[in-house]
Design a protein that fits this description.
Blueprint (H helix, E strand, L loop, with lengths): L27 H10 L8 H16 L5 E7 L3 H18 L4 H19 L13 E8 L7 E8 L11 H14 L5 H20 L5 H26 L6 H17 L8 E8 L7 H10 L8 E6 L6 E8 L5 E2 L2 H13 L9 E5 L4 H7 L4 E7 L11 H32 L1
Parallel strand pairs: 3-4, 3-5, 5-9, 6-8
Antiparallel strand pairs: 1-2, 2-4, 6-7, 6-9
Helix pairs in contact: 1-8, 3-4, 3-6, 3-7, 4-6, 6-7, 8-12, 9-11, 10-12
Length: about 425
């Protein structure tokens, strides 16, 4: 059992004891205001750089070592996807006159979209400009076999009609109606695939009014997508109060709460990623640079993202096109917390499927145990506003998850090592 005093006793399998929080130096709302004051944190922007330097200083003031590491980012995804959607439209128009060329064009557009969105491999974005970004990294005790990496991204996303409140609310409502959350890139990719199939059918010799009518629907969808993506490309950056200044301040509070020697089996590292909105560039750079130092069976990535409004959600699957499962042990622990919380109803936690290319999705793609904690409203979409109660709920839920992870999973690892 983890002792709540300065010394630590043994941890028995399956036993969890709450660690009383230390008196905090951090005012969540004041810290959030400080991050907002640096400006709109577009990927690779000066404002994102100022936010990273501010976070580095705050970690050092909390008594933790902290440093920044460079990240290459290609943030021109709206224009890149607009070009790929346009290629799909051109392929559809060419399909009657030159079906082979149309099929090749539609296949190329679909493949490049899949590689960029699902594999997080920048394709067409590479020719649209590179930006210099940075991660903020604070290592805990690197000698311990177990590691919990607290993750939150520094940057903010773009504005535009397709990502505005009304559009997101309607998409969330439709997703609840059909019981399948809908991602914007998912719609684009399925429209491209539909055009590709139509081109292949024409190449095989099929033709006629029914095929033309069916092909018309995804073609119109791609035309609308081009307009919406160009609107995003020319729009500015959002304030990022909830997504993700809220996650940054909660991660700071957790880093303060779980300082040196607060856990029995796990070290707590902190990673504030740059340019998450540019294909999780910061997480991909971190894994490329430090992946060999982190054991895949002993490193857990806890992603804190958009926790400023609503009640707690934890992912059981996430990904823009391919939805990977969050690690089963982490989901099980979150389920336990949600069940124990039923009477008090403090967290209101429940699982969701996220259609975002989050930092956790990038780490899960590389084979690491991951889960994302966020806060959502009734329709499970991310609002822009922030309230202190949601921040406190998210911090409390993450703290319980970390404590149970240390007491249960950590104890299991020790038992397995002793048996072997």
């Amino acid at each position: 059992m983890a002792d709540t005093g300065s010394s630590k006793g043994p941890v028995r399998k399956g036993v969890w004891v709450r660690i009383p929080p230390r008196a905090s130096q951090l005012d969540l709302l004041a810290e959030l205001d400080s991050l907002i004051d640096v400006g709109r944190r577009a990927p690779g922007s000066d404002a994102e750089r100022r936010a990273a330097l501010h976070l580095e200083r705050r970690l050092q003031e909390l008594g933790r070592p902290a440093e920044t590491e460079p990240v290459d980012a290609w943030p021109g995804w709206p224009l890149a996807y607009a070009i790929l959607a346009t290629l799909g439209v051109v392929a559809s128009l060419l399909s009657t006159a030159a079906p082979l060329a149309a099929a090749a064009l539609a296949f190329a557009a679909s493949l490049l979209t899949f590689l960029d969105a699902a594999v997080l491999l920048p394709t067409l974005r590479r020719v649209l400009g590179r930006r210099a970004s940075q991660n903020v990294l604070s290592w805990g005790d690197r000698e311990r076999a177990g590691a919990i990496v607290l993750v939150a991204h520094c940057d903010a996303g773009r504005a535009g009609l397709a990502v505005g409140r009304r559009a997101v609310e309607r998409r969330a409502a439709l997703g609840q109606l059909i019981r399948h959350p809908i991602g914007g890139l998912e719609l684009l990719f399925w429209a491209q695939l539909a055009v590709l199939v139509s081109c292949l059918l024409r190449l095989a010799g099929l033709d006629g009014t029914p095929l033309t009518a069916v092909q018309f629907v995804p073609t119109v969808a791609l035309i609308v997508a081009v307009a919406l993506l160009i609107d995003i490309a020319i729009s500015g950056t959002r304030g990022g109060e909830n997504d993700n200044a809220s996650g940054l301040v909660v991660a700071l509070r957790l880093a303060e709460r779980f300082g040196a020697d607060r856990l029995e089996h796990f070290a707590v590292h902190v990673l504030f990623t740059g340019s998450q909105k540019a294909g999780a560039a910061g997480m991909r750079a971190f894994l490329k640079r430090h992946g060999r130092e982190l054991a895949r069976d002993g490193t857990v990535f806890l992603n804190v993202d958009a926790v400023g409004s609503g009640t707690v959600r934890y992912t059981r699957r996430e990904g823009p096109l391919l939805a990977f499962r969050s690690h089963v042990d982490l989901v099980s622990l979150c389920d336990e917390i949600a069940e124990d919380d039923d009477e008090e109803n403090a967290f209101g936690a429940r699982p969701i499927v996220s259609r975002a290319a989050s930092d956790a999705y990038a780490a899960r793609s590389a084979g690491y145990p991951t889960i994302t904690i966020s806060c959502r409203g009734r329709l499970d979409y991310v609002p822009g506003r922030v309230d202190e109660e949601a921040l406190e709920r998210a911090e409390g839920f993450c703290a319980e998850l970390i404590e149970r992870l240390d007491a249960q999973v950590g104890a299991d690892r020790i038992s397995a090592a002793e048996e072997s």
